[in-house]
Design brief:
Strand order of the largest sheet of chain A: 5-4-1-8-9-10-11-12-13
Radius of gyration of chain A: 18 Å
CATH topology of chain A: UDP-N-acetylmuramoyl-L-alanine:D-glutamate ligase
Structural class of chain A: alpha/beta
Order of helices and strands of chain A: EEEHEHEEEHEHEHEHHEEEHHH
Distance between the termini of chain A: 25 Å
Helix content of chain A: 25-40%
Largest sheet of chain A: 9 strands, mixed
Strand content of chain A: 15-25%
CATH class of chain A: Alpha Beta
Oligomer: homotetramer
């Protein structure tokens, strides 16, 4: 698997889905009830991946609906500031708000999030707001699972995938499962299956694949067998501290471990992993190295206070890889 | 009008309605897009009045629905901490969240609020959650208009008023009009009228009375004529920097001006006004002095960063009154 | 109590609320599963009362929202055909439908109704669609309880009552309690109480007053005591086959029994009762006779196939009264 | 294309989707406003096809949610009475109602339908209510497009298709497009495309394919090109009075005309067409003859009063084919 097709296109990657606001505890190592101050960051898995890949040097774009308020304008200007193309962003005209995630950092092992996700702007992206001309300029469309949780965002993403396939743009599906906003696990499984069967690359944790399969204790063998019967060429399955695996349609398997770090919180690991993994693939470093880039990038982000602002540069990743070789 | 009836009751005042979270800009004199840190306070008009009257020494209680999460626990513990009885609070069991108000402080004249009010816990207080035994212990029930904006909170408040009147508890109606959450101005006018016709004391700005009357440019004379034909004994109408007026059913009129202060923001003025005005009435200081207490209290709060935490003590108010006599 | 005030006004009575479609079993004395044909009639308590009073010779009008479809046009033309003024009817512009009531007539004692009441047009009457000039032309505004069950119809009725009182138009409240469409009994009790406290005449069954009072086994004495403390002048309480009672604010009590008839079904009894009772009051026949008119009219309607089309003339009622004197 | 695979299975065909009530005008050739009586029939495209194929001698089953009321019991008993297996039917437990279709028959050319489709039971079939063991017993799963219009019925159908494919059961997609209940044409196009790409046989009118393709004036060539790139083996496209076409993946094309009849109304043509077409395929009569069976069956139904009760037997179809040979 390499991603060097369509190299003349304007964007290496366009991510579609939510861009929201993280409000991270300034005073931590305590319950949120006692946190009196919060710092504001851009958040949301696909937004983080657009930011992460852009900071690594890829040409990244973003499709999503943002509120027409102070938080929406912050999101747009922050993302533009780190080099993400924001011309695919759509302003909500119905007064909907940005999703919020208040993070509580009690200890490295005990973090929780208090989510505000009712009627958030990002879930109101409509199919008509996804522009075929924009997608046609991308080599990869990055789809995050949460955007499938509600209509019309669900249909906007299904439509975007249809347009990507029609225009020879690879589809990467980051499972990014979040229980809130989904009506039921049953419905999650239906749409995750539908999209994974159409994706070229699928990335997720073992738990997320189990959710997709509607059962616990699934095996990587069964998962990859099912996906390779459909359209997948590459499947990445993360097993937490035990490391991550990549499987190719041709039958190869790769594995990487995790890197030591001074963990502050667990948020943001998945998004930084995906960003660096895709960066390495785009740069022809091979799947095994790409797994290492993903893993190292995750290690860096979980040692820092934010998910988006902490996204590392390639040099930072490479330094860590060198140190812990 | 005095409030010294039922002095044997456990509570001077029980407020009913919303208790939420204010997130006030730490870096101000700039648009919120550029504010990167926010401080957390308890907010919401009736919560602020419960806090304000409690800090002034009245025995205050609160009826309202709060979320079963970190923000809900903060609200409960903060209010209990300043002496408010919170046994009338009900925990939401459906995962609803606290309302949020992000405040933007561009300049003393240019403040705005970014509200999160979709499906907030406070608007789900149900009539069955209003306890007659609790209301029977109060001398005054303080109703805030915003709690009328949606069912079932609307019916909970109508029911609480019914119980108050049945148990010889005076009803004070603070108009507290906020356009969000109301379906239409027409509906606002209908419920404001319905409740104002049943209230013993009504407090609001001239603009709020105009909203209640469904027209612009209403006169204090017409407003008081209508309310005194119903059950009101005392009507307070605030005219911003021009000062405030109190009218009694017996025909007396009182007026107070405003106090000079170093304005930081305009939030919280109404709640601090109501708190100090009621405090003075409970302490038999007479209506004219009560207007001054209200006005002085408002001046103090608008010079400070929060609405709730900044509620003054009686000594602070009296110092200001003395200084600007 | 007489109703001869404002005799110069164009309408004796204007009813507000629902006008729907009854689909009555053509083949009866069997479960509805085996009924293969249905006859169409206009239905809905306030529509039936407008029809009933109009057929008795009163000048009747109607305020309500009807669908812009074949059923709506049938309702309008049928009501106009029996003399009801339909200029206060409003067309729904959102594609909402008429409520439907399929009636099952298994036996005179065993009737049930299969209701279609989801998103029906009548419950979407808005306050702005109630015209003060129209209400000002009426001597009596007839309010039916079901119209209070949902917003915005609820607010439209509250607004109509406000306009009626402002314009010296008497308010008659027919409790007409139907469990469907109400969210809870608690909410029913709140709004029934609110409106009954403002009404000049209240008419209902003992069970309906119990619903209003939120308890079982209420007494007529307690009910009338409460209502006469507010604005009621006349209260009618129906006790089924044991007859009906009327109480006046001045302390008089009247009673009437029921008339023998060949019962086909039990639908429509209440509406025909109210129609004839009000007709007799308007014609100065005295309360005792008015109760008889109501009772006789109900006897006639329950022996016939429809509720609206079967509404008797004054001559039919008087013949029955004469026969069973 | 033949359907003789899996001949040992218990059911030739299981239809999934809505079963509702048709209320057909007894007095016709007039606007519905003047129709005073209605006859009751079972209706709904997939229910009609289950009835139609069962009357033709196929072993048919049905999956759908019906109300727990008189209409629901009528639907179940009528369908069981004509031989349809109803063990896959699920009772709604939330008080939802059967969909209704009041038909207006002004003239053979001018028919309209007044639909009641708000919160109808059939659209609440949940994925968990679709039983894999039941689908495994079928040779064909018949999916009707309307069931895709809303969640959770949409997901139930997507899940049923997934189970059908997993269990080697052919998927027949009858487009059956009805504008009501769909949020937008855009959303219709997305789900029609998604399902058509997974179906083995697709049947619809040229207009319905245009809806699926999101444009007017599509060609049969483009439509079949797209579907044969996916999983379709047989595509039927109906052009009204100009006849119908069948295309096979192998490249063959077949055409049939229409049969003369005394048209009463246009309802029910599509369902009777599909029933007879599939019957002929199951009986190895070849595609060309199957088109004739479909066309003849449609001619018979549009000359009669109902859609379901009028479904012809094989003998009736063959007589017509013989007569108009």
């Amino acid at each position: 698997m390499n991603l060097n097709k369509n190299s003349e296109r304007k964007f290496d990657i366009i991510a579609i889905g939510r861009a929201c606001i993280d409000l991270n505890a300034v005073e931590y190592n305590r319950p949120m009830e006692e946190t009196m101050t919060f710092s504001k960051y851009v958040g949301g898995s696909p937004a983080n991946i657009a930011i992460g890949t852009s900071k690594l040097g890829l040409k990244a774009g973003f499709i999503g609906k943002i509120p027409d308020d102070q938080h929406g304008r912050f999101i747009q200007s922050y993302m533009a500031g780190v080099g993400v193309d924001t011309t695919g962003m759509v302003l909500d005209t119905e007064g909907r708000k940005a999703g919020l995630a208040f993070t509580e950092i009690k200890s490295p092992e005990d973090c929780s999030i208090l989510m505000y996700r009712d009627n958030v702007a990002d879930l109101y992206l409509a199919p008509s707001e996804v522009d075929e001309d924009y997608i046609r300029q991308a080599r990869v469309l990055l789809v995050s699972g949460t955007a499938l949780s509600k209509s019309p965002s669900r249909e906007a993403v299904l439509h975007a995938i249809h347009l990507a396939k029609k225009n020879d743009c690879l589809v990467v599906f980051e499972l990014d499962y979040r229980p809130y906003t989904w009506v039921s696990e049953e419905e999650t499984a239906i749409y995750y299956t539908l999209v994974a069967e159409q994706a070229d690359i699928v990335i997720g944790t073992r738990d997320e694949y189990d959710m997709m399969e509607g059962k616990e204790g699934g095996t990587n063998e069964a998962t990859t067998h099912h996906l390779f019967e459909n359209q997948a060429k590459l499947v990445v399955i993360k097993h937490g501290v035990e490391g991550s695996f990549a499987y190719t349609r041709e039958g190869a398997t790769f594995k990487a471990g995790v890197y030591k770090t001074n963990v502050l919180k667990t948020f943001g690991a998945g998004d930084s992993y995906a960003s660096a993994f895709l960066y390495a693939l785009f740069n022809d470093k091979g799947i095994e190295t790409a797994l290492k880039y993903g893993s190292a990038s995750a290690s860096i982000v979980i040692s820092k206070h934010s998910s988006s602002d902490a996204m590392p540069t390639a040099a930072e990743i490479e330094t860590l890889l060198e140190e812990q070789k």
